[in-house]
Amino acid sequence: MRLRVVSARNEIPNLNPNEKTIHMAFRASNVDFLNLMQRCPRMRMIQVPPSYHKTMSNAIQVFLEMQGIELLQGDVWGHRKDLDEYFTVDDTTTEEIRSLAASGVSMDDVTNQMQKKARIGSDLIKYIAKTKMTA
Predict the structure, then answer these.
(1) Predicted local confidence at residue 116, as pLDDT
(2) CA pair distance 45, 31, nearest whole angstrom
(3) CA separation for the pair 70, 89 (Å, rounded)
(4) Has residue 29 got a pLDDT over 90?
(5) Are residues 73 and 95 in the same domain?
(6) Are 51 and 101 part of one and the same domain?
(7) Which of 88, 103, 122 marks a domain boundary?
(8) Which pLDDT score is estimated for 134?
(9) What DSSP element (H or E) covers 47?
(10) DSSP 52-112
């Protein structure tokens, strides 16, 4: 699974319209989210750092929900944008999350176990567990 890391609002017009998962590494305004949705109509998930999530307006959160776009909290630890514009969750990690979830392990146990192992956020782990997306 790959998340496109967007670190500035001037990157939004240059995004691939087929992007489905995005991490916003800057404090985006409502207009930035609307521009992002126009540029990437197939988007299914946006991840924002927890500190940015606290300052987001309720209106844009409701609008994203109405559009079927999930808003997650989380960081991309250790990612360097100058090396790669995508943050990648390994296929083995993705499969392990899905198999743990399918085997009946509670979601809290899955997140606790995988957070330590893969260094990804709990919201992203839950998103991976419930989606069948392979990208």
Answers:
(1) 80
(2) 17
(3) 18
(4) yes
(5) no
(6) no
(7) 88
(8) 42
(9) strand 45-48
(10) HHTTS-HHHHHHHHHTT-EEEE---TT--TTT-SEEE--HHHHHHHHHHHHTT--HHHHHH
Which residues contact residue 9 at a Cβ distance below 8 angstroms, ignoring those fewer than 6 apart? 26, 28, 29, 32, 35
For residue range 112-131, list pLDDT tens digits in order.
888 888 888 889 999 998 88
What is the SS3 assignment for 122?
helix
Residue 127 · residue 45 · CB < 8 Å: yes
User: Bridge partners of 21?
Assistant: 45
Both 24 and 80 in one domain: the answer is yes
pLDDT tens sequence across 32-52: 999 999 999 999 999 999 999
Q: In terms of domains, do 1 and 48 share one? A: yes
Q: Are residues 3 and 18 in the same domain?
A: yes
Bridge partner residues of 73 (DSSP): 48
Same domain, 76 and 116: no
Q: Sheet containing 86-88: which strands, arranged edge to edge? A: 70-73, 45-48, 21-24, 2-6, 86-88
Residue 115 backbone class (left: φ over 0; alpha: ψ -120 to 50; beta: rest): alpha
What is the residue range of 69's domain?
1-88
Based on the domain organization, do 10 and 71 belong to the same domain? yes
The pTM of this model reads: 0.86
